[in-house]
Every structure is written in C-alpha cells, then in structure tokens.
Amino acid sequence: MRIRILSIAVALAVLSSLSFAQNEKTISVIAWNLVQPALDKLIPVFEKKTGYKVNFTWVTGPVSRGRVASGDMFDAAIMAGPIGEVLASGQVVISSVRTLSGLKLSVTVRQGAPKPDISSFDAVKKALLSAKSVGYVDPDRGTIGINAWATVQRLGIVEELRAKTVHGTGGPNAQELAAKGVVEINLGPFYNDALVPGVERVGALPRDVSTPSPIVGAIGIHARDQAGARAMLEFLGSAEANAVYRELNMETVP
Predict the structure, then answer these.
(1) Dihedral angle over CA of 66, 67, 69, 72, nearest 10
(2) 78-129 pLDDT per residue, tens
(3) Secondary structure of residue 29 in the 3-state scheme
C-alpha cells in the first residue's frame, strides 16, 4: 500500500510539472551578443511585467542574420543590421521588423597614450593616417568589423591603411591588441560596457564618418507565440528601453 501511494504521489508530481511547463509562457529569441548588456537590464523588467520567460540564443552579428535567414525556429530575433538577406529569405514577419537601437563606432587607445582628435571627418582621417597601426575586428567575424571597414572606405583611405591594419578575432581581442601596443588605434563599439584592462576610450566617431550599426528586431514567420514576441519588441522599442540605451551610450530611435 505504501509503495502504491508513493507511486501515485510521484505520478501526480510529474503531471503537475508537465502542466506547469505547458502553461509557462516562453519566447525563444536569437540575439546579437553585443546587445546582451542592454537586454540583461531590460528583459527581467519585461518578464516581471508580462509573466513571459525569454530564452536567448546568443550569437555574433553575422550569425544572427544567417541563422534567421536559414530557417532556424524562433519566436523573435534581435539582429545586427542591415538585414537584406533576412528580408529576402521570407523567414520573418515583414510588418514586425523594427530598428530598436544602434551601436556607434568609437576609438580606443592604450591607457596613458595620447588621445587623437576625432571631432570631425578630417580629424578622424588625419588620426588614422598618422597612426602607426590600426586595429578592429575581422569583418568576416563581426558586425563592428564590417562597420569599421565601411568607415575606412568612407574616409577614402583603404590603400593607405592596408599594410598597417591588424584584425582581431573578436571585440575583447581587438582591445587587447591596443592594450599591448600592437595597434595604436582600435575601432570598436561605443558602448558603456567593461573595457579590457589597459585601454581607454576616446569617444564615438561623428555621424558623417561612421553610421551606427542598427539593432533590428523581428518576429519569426513560424513563431509559436507571435503576440508575446510582438509585446517584447514593443517593449524594447519603448521610452523605458531608450533610457537604458542612452545609459549604455547606444543610439536611440525616436
């Protein structure tokens, strides 16, 4: 009899846990890993307000677009823009696509090193040409590297910098190159997150020099809970979210 009662209790516990799992409101999100510091602040607020649980898959900027375009299953995506290939893939609800924020490009140097003038187009161009070496993330590995490469092209100094450009494998590695003196100037995100030891941030590049990398949200065409995904994206585009973006030196969208 005791064994039978125990078996019934175990069965009820299993059924209860299954019922809870079925009733739990969850949103699966593919997200650009550079946005994590902002989302770490915002998503707990959203979860408390709505009762949803948000489950993230963190990836690099290029991978965020690639996984969405290739048909991965997800409710929402927070990607590094531009997202032309994603729109062409048919894997997102077009009407749900919205720019949530943006990441500006900035200059960092070795701690204690002279800080170059980056106040204007001509000043940035002069600083990069005068530097003995320049570093940024390999454009094949990260969106910020793509932005840095586009900035060099806009400045018209591709050939002048070619021989003295060093690519990092990622954001921290690119900063470490500056900290160790391997590069004199590092181009990276203007983001109020922790810098690696030994570097200082000079500031963000002017808009006429570098366009911020857009952070784009969208709902998956096969989303299990489109209403929940839409609510999350609306919250991430709200005035409350913009206050956090400003705190982190991110670009805000009116």
Answers:
(1) 170
(2) 999 999 999 999 999 999 999 999 999 999 999 999 999 999 999 999 999 9
(3) strand
Query: What single-letter DSSP state applies at residue 34?
Result: G
First to last CA, the chain: 68
Task: Classify domain 25-102+213-252 by CATH architecture.
Answer: 3-Layer(aba) Sandwich (3.40)
CA dist., res. 3 & res. 1, Å (int): 5
Give the span between the Cα atoms of 130 and 161, in whole angstroms.
Answer: 10
Place of tokens 């200059």: 107
Domain 104-204, CATH number (from 3.40.190.10, 3.90.1030.10, 3.20.20.70, 3.30.9.10): 3.40.190.10
Instruction: Please count the other Cβ atoms lying within 10 Å of the Cβ belonging to residue 185.
Output: 24
Distance CA 53, CA 36 (A): 16
pLDDT class of 192 with cuts at 50, 70, 90: low
This prediction's pTM: 0.83
Q: Give the start-to-end residue ranges of the domains of the chain.
A: 25-102+213-252, 104-204
Amino acid at 135: G
Question: SS3 for 7?
Answer: helix
Q: In 3-state terms, what secondary structure has residue 136?
A: strand
The length of the chain in residues reads 254
Task: State the DSSP H helix or E strand holding residue 234, giving kind and residue range, or none if neither.
Answer: helix 226-236
Following DSSP, what letter does each residue of 47-107 receive, concatenated? Answer: HHHH--EEEEEEE-HHHHHHHHHTT---SEEEEESP-HHHHHHT-B-GGG-EEEEEEEEEE
pLDDT at 3 over 60: no
What pLDDT is attached to residue 64?
95
